Amino acid sequence: MTTADYGEKIPNNVDLREDRRLQRALESWQPNFLSWWESMGPTLPTEDVYLRTAVNVGREGWAHFGHVAMRDYRWGIFLAEPRHDRRIAFGEHKGEPVWQKVPGEYRAELQRLIVIQGDTEPASVEQQRNLGATAPSLYDLRNLFQVNVEEGRHLWAMVYLLHAYFGREGREEAEELLHRNSGSEDAPRILGAFNEETPDWLSFFMFTYFTDRDGKYQLGTLKESGFDPLSRTCEFMLKEEAHHMFVGTTGIDRVVRRTVELMREHDTDDVIGHGGIPLRMIQKYLNFHYSVSLDLFGSETSTNVANYFTAGIKGRWSEERRSDDHRLTDDSIMVDAVVDGRIGQTEVAALVGLNTDLRREYIADCQSGVNRWNRILEEAGLPQRLRLPSVAFNRQVGAFAGIQATPDGEIIPQEEWDRRKGEWLPTEVDKTYVRSLMRPVYERGKIAAWIAPPRQGINGKPFDYDYVHLA
Q1: Domain residues of the chain, as ranges?
Q2: Which positions ≥6 away from 277 have C-beta within 8 Å?
Q3: CA–CA separation, 402 vs 388, rounded Å?
Q4: pLDDT digit string (tens) for 333-362?
Q5: Phi, psi angles (nearest 5°) of residue 339
């Protein structure tokens, strides 16, 4: 078991003190990070928050809970335990020992993948920075801040790799990660979904369910990498990412549960007059966040991803559990496409269809949450059901970027889309109504009227625990 060294200025389990040059470089980056946190992180003043902090990366538990002032949170650098016999599991280097240093021929590609992953981490903090002002409970406020500090730590994880393995270019890229800002006209974040607003808590729950789930799958492919430090970094990040998706899954659970309570209590589908969020509005928010997150997987076909796989730097989800030859040079896959004016599929080489392979894993995972929310409706005896829209709906990237499709997957003319999109995506009226519900509840044991309380608290604590001490 590797214990984090908390005696250092930067907590770590990578023996940072053994590389004084690297340690000095990261310590010089640290004030810039803290300055970014102060200017672009959570705006709600707090004294301290009941947070989870990494103390080791072993299986027997890796987190310590306690009240911490957020500025003093011990962001650090943690890699999962090494597997000393680990070998590359796929591509043309299959069976060779994993790399401890960056192979020169793949340097640019690895750096680009790390930068893109790193750019998403501070972006979500920026998107969520004002949400504390409208938290529905102290429990939810604590969960928001836990997500925020862990996204900050994930930024540290990528910055460590850039500094440790990519020289001057890596250090420059690490600086740029703090200079881009979500939604900025001059220097936006790299991926579109990370420039969208997160103006309310329904959006936050959808983001942590759908968009953080994309992060899970991207980290899962990088965990397979033949570059071992990246693999071990992502393996540990996945442990923290699980909490973010828990926040989204249970958050939407609780919104649906409260809506169902109001529907049954007042015998109406329209709970707006009773301070709830109607199912049709929840569906619109689901449609938006799901479709935007699908774009994060890129085009249905990609030669870049094929090259990443062949080179051994980015694998498939659960690569080592797959039963094929892990090279895919002679295999094919059916990918989503517009065929004869309709949404269908076409056959391509398996290597260029890897984005589709990953997106399908993601879609199946997303469906599990929808099934969970629908069980709440079913158990309440209600006929309504939530659902994932068509893979072609509201897409800006890939095969469906040039068309308009309904949630049922029917291709429609642009003018019909313009006329009807308010049926399927949140309108300004919808957004204004949801924002009108966002009134903070900071009293212990109390919660806003539009959401149900959680079934249990954090780390065995009750719902009415003092999770956050406000300044």
Answers
A1: 16-470
A2: 202, 255, 258, 259, 271, 434, 437, 450
A3: 21
A4: 999 999 999 999 999 999 999 999 999 999
A5: -125, 115
Structure tokens at 410: 């029917």
- For residue 153, CA distances in Å to 12, 78, 148, 393 come to 11, 9, 9, 34
Q: Is the pTM of this model over 0.85?
A: yes
The pLDDT of residue 415 is: 97
Per-residue tokens: 364: 């199946």
Please, what CATH class does the domain formed by 16-470 belong to? mainly alpha
Structure tokens at 105: 């021929």
CA angle 160, 166, 172 (to 5 degrees): 80
Q: Which of 201, 79, 192 is nearest to 128 (CA)?
A: 201
In tens, the pLDDT along 62-102 reads: 678 999 999 999 898 999 989 999 999 999 999 999 999 99
The dihedral built from the CA positions of residue 226, 227, 229 and 230, taken in this order, carries a sign that is negative
How far apart, in whole angstroms, are the C-alpha atoms of residue 172 and residue 170?
5
Give the C-alpha separation, 189 to 348, whole Å.
31
Tokens (6 digits) for 344: 């269908």
Alpha carbon of residue 40 to chain centroid: 18
Residues, the chain, total? 471
Q: Cα separation of 373 and 380, whole Å?
A: 11
Q: Cα(173)–Cα(166) distance, rounded to whole angstroms? A: 9
